[in-house]
Structures are given as C-alpha cells and as structure tokens.
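Model the whole thing, not chain by chain.
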Amino acid sequence: MAETKMKEISLKPFERGTERLFELFDNKIVLISYIILTLVFLIYLPLNSSRFTQQIMTNFFFFVVVCLGLNIIIGFAGLLNLGYAAFIAVGAYVTGILSATYGINFWLTLPFSIVAAIIAGLALAGPTLRLRGDYLAVVTLGFGEIVRFTARNVEFTGGAVGLIGIERPVFFGIVLNQITHFYYMFFILALLAIITSYRLRASRLGRAWEYIREDEDAASAMGINVVSTRLYAFIIGSCFGALAGSFFAVKMTAISPESFTFIHSVMILLAVVLGGMGKIPGVVLGALFVTLFPELSRGIGQYRMVIFAFVLLVIMLYRPQGIWPDRQGISTKL
Amino acid sequence: MTLWDILLQQLFNGLLIGAFYGLVAVGYSMVYGVIKLLNFAHADIYMCGAFCGLILLTFFAPNIGNTWFGIVVALLISMLVVGILGVVIQRVAYQPMLKAPRLSILITALAVSMLLYNAVLLMTQGQVRAFRTGIVDESFFVGSLRMTDTRMVLLISALLLMLILHLFITRTMYGKAMRAIALDHDTCRLMGINVHKIIALTFFVGSALAAAAGIMAGVHYGTVHFFMGFLIGLKAFTAAVIGGIGIIPGAMLGGLFLGLLEAFATQIPFIGTAWKDVFSFAFLILFLIFKPHGILGRRVSERM
C-alpha cells in the first residue's frame, strides 16, 4: 500500500493525467459496457461505411494480430525479435505457394503455415536462446533479410515479382472476395488473438514468462526451464505472425518480398513498445496508432521514419512502460 | 589461371574484406565487453564514417585531396568526428539506460540506429554517392597474384590499426581499465576508475575504428550509400561471435576468418556470389549451435 502511494507521488504530471483517464476502466461494469459498445460498433461499422474505412479497419485488425504475436515474444517473454515480418512472410508464402501453385484449399494450408513457423522459430531461437537472449535480436534481424533475399531469388516464390493469383478462400460455399468479408474475417481473427493472449497470460506458461522476466534466477530455482519456456514464447508468437500472414496472402491475392521488409518489423515493434510491452489493451492501442499514423502523416512523407525512430527513442528514455500505464505495476520493470 | 592462382587471389580478397569486418567487429565486441549491449547503431556509425570521409575528401580536393596524404588526413579527422558522435550517442541514449533491463537498452540502440540511418537517407536523398579519391591505381603482380596499390595500402593500414588497438588494450592504463570494467563495474569504481569516462572512451575508440573501416570500404568499392552499414553490421556481428564476443583479438580474428570464408565460398559453384550473404548467415547459426562461445571464448554462462 505504502509503495503504491510512493509511486503515485513520484509520477510526472503527464502520467498522472493519463492515469486518471485510464482509471475509468477500473470499474468492472464500466469496462464491460465499454467492451460491448465497442464490439457492437465494430460489428455494425461495415454496414454503413465506405470501402476506405473498412480497408483501414481491416488493416488495423491485421496489425492487432501481429502486434499481439510480437507482444508474446517481447512483452511476455522479454525477447527481442527484429525480423518479425519474416515470420509473417513465411506464413504468407506457405499459403501462397500451396494454394497458387498446388491448388490446395486455403483452410488446409493453415496447418502447414503453422508448421513452417514452428520450424523457423526452432531453427532460429533453439541455438540462440541457449546462450544469450540478446543474440536473438541480431539473428532475427539477419533472418528477416535472408527470408526476403531468398524469396526474391528462388523460382518457386515467384522472385521479385512475387506470387500472384492466390485463390480466394471459400467459407461454407461463399467465396470471400469483398472487403466486408475480410473485415469480418480479420475482426474475428483479432478477437481470437486478444482472447488467446489473455488466456495465455493467465496460464501456467504465462505466469512462468512473467516470473522469468522479473527474476530469471529465482524462476530457474523454482524449477522453471528458462530456455524451453522462452522458446515456447518465441514459437507461439511466430505462429501468430504466420497465421496472420496466411490470411494476409488471401486478402491481397498477391504477395511480394517487399511486403515484408525490416520497416514492417519495426512498425510492429513500435506498436508494441508504444502500447506498453506486455499489456494487451496497450498493444491494441499501439496497433491502432501504427495503422492510422501513415494515413494521418501523408504530408510529412519522407520524414516519417525519422519521426518513428525518434518516437521510439523518446518512449524508451522517458516512458518505457508505454502510453497505457500499468495499474498493477507488474511490468513497469520491463 | 590455375585453381591455385584463383585460391591465392581469393585469399588476398578475403583478407582485405575480412580486415574491414574485423575493424567493425572490434567495435561490437568492445561495447559488448564493457556494457553488455549489442550496439545496433554501430553499423550506422560505420556508414556515417564513410560519409564523413566523403565530405572531407570533397572539401580537401582542391589542395591535398588527391594524394594519400589527403586521404589519411580525412581518415583521421573522420575518426575523430565519428568517435565523438559515438560518445554523444552513448551519453544521450545509453547512459540513462544502463540500469534499465536489457530489453529496453536494446530497443534504444535500435532506435538510435534507425535515426542515424534515416537521417543520412534524407540527407543523401537515398542516392549512391561516388567516393572519388583521384588516386591513379597501378596494378602489379606478385607471382601470379594481381594486386593494386590501393588494396595493398588498405590491407596494411587495416592491419596496422588493429595492431595499434591491440597495443592500446594490452599496454596502456586505459586499456587495462576497459578490461577491468568488462569484469565488474562496481569494483572498478571502488578502485578509483571513472567508469563512465572509460565507457565513453570505449565508444570513442570503437566508433573511430568503424569510421576508418567505412572510409576504407569507400576507397575500396568506390561508392558509399546509406544502406552500406546494414549488411556489414550483420557480418561484423557474426565475426564478433565467431571470435567470442567481448574478446577483442577474437573479433579481429573472426573478421579475417569470415572474410576468407566468404571469399572461398564464392568459388563453390552452388553458392556463388549471389548466395554468399545467406551462406555467412547460415554459418552464424551453425557456429551458435556448435561453438557458441567462439574461437577464443571461454565457457561462461551469461544471462539476458
């Protein structure tokens, strides 16, 4: 109790302001009614909105899924993955190749996409995590480039042009080819990602991640296998990315190596850091920001990346807990 | 050309490229040694060094620019300027984060790297710039080995820089302090070492060497561009891991080793020049699996 008082006094004015704003969500009834209102709003939105709005919202849902995936790796387990876009690419290419070249039904490609992500995750994180977690950052950075390079230089991925003519998925006899279809598809996907994230965090595995992040030695002494627990986080996070990639492939019907660059990895990372690593509502908020930012910032064009970098630096230096303050005070240490 | 000649030629090429890798790898390794940070910005510091050299050479061109003397002056000034840049980055971005968790400081390093990269991208409009030295390059043969003046000078000066660094680390008080800080910050403070000053010095030396490598790469390839740091950053990191991260002679050896490996890999028909980057990355993964502590590394378990 005394500790929380101390914390509140030491908060900076800006933090106090946002804390008060977010206090609204502490009340359970208020919170639930907000959630229901948001859901109803999002379900009704496509019925009377332009294609442009739906497009942006679909993008947003896509970002929610990938950001939550990266959040498992960075926020829950405290590992840095700088090539996350490559895992999205793995999923997208597996689905793309299987459905465009071999004509396999989209839904049947999903397990293959997950298996590919698991293999990639094991190959990268397996040898690296045994050593030092921060090697992983460089290895994933390299992997991001290698995947892109390979996709551009081998034949079965369509080279630099990429894959075109990926078949639209069929869902109970309906061919999903309207933006509204994809809006709902990604909406459900995002909801599932959010629920899965919450369930994961509350699970035994989730608590083990938190323990390791806070005190690795203590966790190890309590019988948690640090390496394999982290490996799980990396692989589960990668699977989120690969699945999102598969759905991305059928939505776009064409994918190219340039859809999965380092910049994309950084955007996703920025969303997670901005929202506050490990905090699910914060990450959703971060995803919203990253989706809207390019739309809002068309005027500044070429300065965008400089501003991104600057924002990232400022957040890390002055507000490492992200824009959404943590009420329980668990991950402020992160 | 016989196979032997080709191999000899590749040996020379490999040594030269490996020397560049080594010079950059040393910076990674030194910084990792003192504050246990993978300095992502290091590759961009290398790139900034190359551009700094380009600006200085253009500036000197009317007077002394077209001589080796001009290049050396430009090299030394760039090393100084970029070294100071490294210290500024350390002071502004890394110093406040020293007590923060490892993940935060890694992300900070990434942000600094992106900032430098995109700043240079904006300033150069993303164009590839010619790095003209104006030196007439004579080529000569040693046996069947074809060499040029420039490449000879580059190789010798890179090796010379490594030698100077090695003497600095092993023979001076500052070098001793650096090695001590790598072991234990708090004890060093008790022994009267100004830890922050030595960390700053480490960044200065590492950045200066990266700048030197950048200019040498500019002279060697004849062009500089904003993305030149990315790949060499990855390679230099690989080199540092191969040599055992935190160990400075290891980084140099690792660099030379990786350079040679790549040069010979290009001769293997299946790999060729196109796939040599993939090859060295695969090699990094293999090294992490089978010899994770590097050639010179001891078995120490360190945690993130």
